[in-house]
């Protein structure tokens, strides 16, 4: 049987970003999957904090050159790649880059700790850019695993604007929810920024709660399964998991890679080959 394909989309990953829940989880997960006969591709933003020389990033010319429309403006998408340092493995990580959104020397906040005013635009750009890049790969993923609020639009886009795209017809979407209050990062005009391909702000109603952006809530609405990525969540985020109408896996730490693999196969209705 051919290898199952797993697309990991993440806003953070060691060693490229600071070691937090998301970064450490993805760093452990990706090699584990590859060692267990899964075909893996990892996509993340190319923040200005990432040292290209140290991590040996280089542009993938055949994938670059697309323009992504956000809020009626065109933004060029540049794709770069690096090999994840791991003994005995050769795994490539793809970085989505744009000078307007990702060249700054901070990730989601400025030097005073204030969220960037264009975080909504950055999120829409990244999520649409991921989908368009995978289309260029011509690589149909069996599992699409999204990590963090900056990936939260991918389930929505795939089930709406890209619902007729055959490449994703059989993909199962997993969303990992971490302890991050996404609404603290995103302005209330988020639905207008995230509307693409003839979608309207009304279509994004699941991403709003009591007049504020609720990116985790929207992602869970359109995902096929959810993983609780942080041990402790806010009361609101716990309520989202409790109300979820899809399978939920509660796993963190060193148990997460193996449990996630089993979870994938349960979604694909196959037995894990140990």
Automatic annotation (TrEMBL):
It catalyses: [(1->4)-alpha-D-glucosyl](n) + ADP-alpha-D-glucose = [(1->4)-alpha-D-glucosyl](n+1) + ADP + H(+). Residues 5-230 form the Starch synthase catalytic domain. Its EC number is 2.4.1.21. The keyword Glycosyltransferase applies. Keywords: Glycosyltransferase, Transferase. InterPro entries: Starch_synth_cat_dom. SUPFAM superfamilies: UDP-Glycosyltransferase/glycogen phosphorylase. GO terms for molecular function: alpha-1,4-glucan glucosyltransferase (ADP-glucose donor) activity. It comes from the Bacteria. It holds the Pfam family Glyco_transf_5. This is starch synthase. It comes from Neolewinella lacunae.
